[in-house]
């Protein structure tokens, strides 16, 4: 679509398919219509219902404040789309421009947006995962089922994994006066996302609020009774606990398996794309008609040395969707880059945690404002002498200041903008745990001998 006439014809009569009826998919569809696209628009989703909001599932839905059915995303406008729901995509043919569906149908496209997101990582033993009382939290049905189980007044809830979702659910348990045990293989909660120092603060918060927090241990077995109800968990240190509910909060799996054989640079870490949200193939070439947005996208960011970054953030999904939609309808010279600074928030144990930037892209961290014992502070992250991120506990009003420091590559440690700088503030190593990969990325190998025939193929590795 090089000429203006061809592009105009596409905007008028083209075929766009969005695979993933998600937050990113819906917002992209709305943006396409807002920008004047009048061609055919098809939405493909593996769930039967219309797109809904996921952050409330581990927050307001579990507290009972919001029914799971009330999380449907509001429509900003009519998108006039054909909805193909309840049937997942299971293949993408770039040679013929078709999306293959699991029921055998083929959906043709001129351009496609992939926004298939992530799914919950299940418990690794299928029979134990099927016990009544064992839950994951990713869909509306998951949250609704867990809310009913918590409302029934379990004797104890076991949460496996102390990331953001696991920690939020632990907080809700204590709000409802439900005894809760949290098991985390790492040395502290949130340590994989925010480092050891903040992990220590999170651990203190949990224990102060009565959580039975067990770090550095692994759940080895979930035991059920004769009726198939979960009743007991076994730990790697030889101990056991009795509980009625177990929540598996071990992160997500990006939905990319359906793209095997497509030729795209897709794997367990997501789908590689450029800053314009155009997907890359295995040879690193840009595919002009394939776009990616949301949790499944791996996008480079110049602030972080153009490293490919996957983000499971609500704001990131919305912003990427808008960029992808605009670029699908635009000539090369008019396309936008997705260069926003990531933001994230969580509420746990009465504390509002917010971040800006990418904390995992850091080698040092320092408390620049407030008091750690009071759980009211800001910590700045630095990498090789420049500011790369900041995290606030009940002190988010200063995050715009830190965003500016990140955008301007300000020196680290940064000067404190207020009089509440701790007297003994000194940078310490950020100390992320050694990565324990639950899924390996695709291994790429160069094949052929003639330089004119060299191609890259993906060798998918299977791990227990």
UniProtKB/TrEMBL annotation:
Residues 344-414 form the Reductase C-terminal domain. Gene3D superfamilies: 3.30.390.30, FAD/NAD(P)-binding domain. Keywords: FAD, Flavoprotein, Oxidoreductase. GO terms for molecular function: oxidoreductase activity, acting on NAD(P)H. Its cofactor is FAD. Residues 15-321 form the FAD/NAD(P)-binding domain. The keyword Transferase does not apply. InterPro entries: FAD-oxidoreductase/Apoptosis, FAD/NAD-bd_sf, FAD/NAD-binding_dom, FAD/NAD-linked_Rdtase_dimer_sf, Reductase_C. Signal peptide: none annotated. It comes from the Bacteria. One of its GO terms (cellular component) is cytoplasm. It holds the Pfam family Reductase_C. This is NAD(P)/FAD-dependent oxidoreductase. It comes from Streptomyces nigrescens.
């Amino acid at each position: 679509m090089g000429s203006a006439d061809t592009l105009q014809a596409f905007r008028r009569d083209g075929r766009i398919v969005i695979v993933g009826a998600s937050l990113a998919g819906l917002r992209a569809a709305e943006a396409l219509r807002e920008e004047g696209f009048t061609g055919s628009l098809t939405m493909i989703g593996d769930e039967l219902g219309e797109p809904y909001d996921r952050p409330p599932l581990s927050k307001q839905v579990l507290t009972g404040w919001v029914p799971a059915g009330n999380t449907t995303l509001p429509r900003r406008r009519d998108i006039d789309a054909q909805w193909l729901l309840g049937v997942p995509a299971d293949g993408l043919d770039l040679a013929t421009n078709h999306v293959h569906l699991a029921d055998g149908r083929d959906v043709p496209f001129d351009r496609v947006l992939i926004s298939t997101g992530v799914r919950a990582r299940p418990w690794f033993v299928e029979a134990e995962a099927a016990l009544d009382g064992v839950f994951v939290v990713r869909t509306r049905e998951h949250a609704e089922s867990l809310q009913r189980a918590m409302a029934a007044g379990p004797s104890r809830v076991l949460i496996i994994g102390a990331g953001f979702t696991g920690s939020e659910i632990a907080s809700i348990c204590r709000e409802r006066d439900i005894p809760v045990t949290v098991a985390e293989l790492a040395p502290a909660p949130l340590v994989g996302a925010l480092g050891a120092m903040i992990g220590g603060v999170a651990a203190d918060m949990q224990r102060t609020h009565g959580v039975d927090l067990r770090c550095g241990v692994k759940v080895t077995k979930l035991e059920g009774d004769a009726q198939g109800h979960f009743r007991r968990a076994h730990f790697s240190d030889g101990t056991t606990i009795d509980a009625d509910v177990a929540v598996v909060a071990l992160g997500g799996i990006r939905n990319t398996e359906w793209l095997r054989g497509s030729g795209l640079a897709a794997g367990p870490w997501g789908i590689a794309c450029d800053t314009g949200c155009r997907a890359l193939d295995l040879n690193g070439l840009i595919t002009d008609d394939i776009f990616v947005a949301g949790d499944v996208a791996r996008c480079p960011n110049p602030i972080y040395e153009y490293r490919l970054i996957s983000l499971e953030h609500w704001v990131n999904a919305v912003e990427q969707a808008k960029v992808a939609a605009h670029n699908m309808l635009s000539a090369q010279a008019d396309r936008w880059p997705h260069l926003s600074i990531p933001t994230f928030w969580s509420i746990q144990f009465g504390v509002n945690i917010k971040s800006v930037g990418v904390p995992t892209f850091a080698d040092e961290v320092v408390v620049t404002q407030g008091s750690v014992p009071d759980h009211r502070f800001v910590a700045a992250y630095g990498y090789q002498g420049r500011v790369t991120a900041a995290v606030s506990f009940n002190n988010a009003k200063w995050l715009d200041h830190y965003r500016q420091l990140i955008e301007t590559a300000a020196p680290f440690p940064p000067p404190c903008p207020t009089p509440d700088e701790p007297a003994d503030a000194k940078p310490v190593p950020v100390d992320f745990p050694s990565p324990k990969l639950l899924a390996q990325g695709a291994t790429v190998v160069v094949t052929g001998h003639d330089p004119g025939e060299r191609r890259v193929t993906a060798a998918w590795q299977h791990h227990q």
